[in-house]
Every structure is written in C-alpha cells, then in structure tokens.
Design a protein that fits this description.
The chain is of the alpha+beta class. The protein is 16% helix and 46% strand. It is built from two helices and nine strands, in the order αβββββββββα. The strands form two sheets. Strands 4, 5, 6, 8 and 9 form a five-stranded antiparallel β-sheet that branches. The chain has a four-stranded antiparallel β-sheet with strand order 1-2-3-7, with no helix packed on it. The longest helix has 17 residues. The chain is globular and about 45 Å long.
Length: 191
C-alpha cells in the first residue's frame, strides 16, 4: 500500500468508524419452523421459511404455512373466524412472561376460516425493522395469528395466538433450551 492509501484508510476509520474499513459481509440464511399446532390455542399456525439478519432488519421469507381452526364444527356460524392475518416479530422475556416486539405490519391471508378447517399460504415476505440494538442473543422469532371472532364465552373481537422459535435469533443458548422444554408442556403460556 502506498502512503496515500494508508492515510486515506486511517482517515475513513477515524471519521466513519471501523465498519468503513471492513468488507461488506452477508449474514447467514437461517431456516425456521414455527408450529403451534400441538398447543391449546383455538386457532393454530405452522409456518416454515428462512430469516436473515441484515443490518437493522430481519428479513423473513415464508415458504409455506397453514392456519387451522380447532373450533368444533358443531358451533357452525358462531365458530367462523374472519379477517385472518399474521405478523412476525421478536419474542423476548419480560417480568410477566414474554412479549412480541418489533412487529411487522399484518398481512391478511383469508377473509374467513370455518370451524375445523384450514387455510394454506405460500411465499410471503416480512421485514422486522429496528433491531440493530435489540438483544438478539436473548430474543426469538415469533409469529402472531390474529382473527376476528365471536366465540361463545370469549369477548367478541380480535383474538391472537402465537408460534415461536425454539432457538434465539443468534442461535441456541441455555435460556432458549429451557424455553423449548417449557414449550413442550405449556406452549400457550410460554409462547
């Protein structure tokens, strides 16, 4: 390297920070399966695809998925859900349990879902934004399924259920392994 190139590189590091001197890197594409079908949720979801962390965003690509109604068929029209939608975000531990944050906008998948029926979907994209300073080693991918419903004994309106990754965004750790165990016995309370 000539002296001019060295001085130029040093100035760019001083002005722009160390990232300016590093070559651009691409994060790895991580496959996922989120599956709440064995839970006690009245509406469940199974979705598979990949995610990729890219700077301040988590790019989620859904390859395929299915939403199912576990509502008994004999409820008829009372058991029909409408405005079936999903959104992705990051799950994280809070004092009261867990919550989903950095939510994407909802994508509506179907106008209605009858009791005992399912809706398949394919090839969707979601962008989880603003995650550059999130504690990703302690957070996991989650999807929220929302339906409008008027089930007997449940307040009429939006009802949400979730499916969560067993591992954290940056890979498994002790906390994610413990959460995965709890999800097997109490899925609806853990995710």
């Amino acid at each position: 390297m000539r002296i001019v190139e060295v001085v130029s590189l040093l100035l760019s590091v001083l002005v722009l920070g160390p990232a300016a001197a590093a070559p651009a890197t691409h994060s790895k594409v991580v496959p996922f399966v989120l599956d709440s079908t064995e839970s006690t949720y009245p509406f469940t979801i199974r979705v598979e695809g990949t995610y990729e962390l890219n700077g301040d965003t988590l790019m989620v690509s859904v390859r395929a998925g299915e939403i199912r109604s576990a509502i008994p068929i004999d409820l008829g029209e009372e058991g029909v859900a409408t405005d079936i939608r999903i959104a992705f975000g990051l799950g994280g531990v809070v004092k009261e349990g867990w919550r989903m944050e950095f939510d994407t906008p909802d994508q509506v998948l179907a106008p209605k879902l009858a009791p005992g029926k399912s809706v398949a979907f394919h090839e969707l994209k979601f962008v989880v934004s603003g995650v550059a300073h999130a504690p990703l080693a302690d957070q996991w991918l989650s999807v929220r399924l929302g339906v409008m419903q008027r089930l007997p004994g449940v307040p009429e309106g939006l009802l949400s259920s979730y499916a969560c990754s067993e591992q954290n965004i940056l890979g498994p750790n002790d906390a994610s392994r413990e959460r995965a165990k709890r999800m097997k016995t109490a899925y609806s309370h853990t995710c």
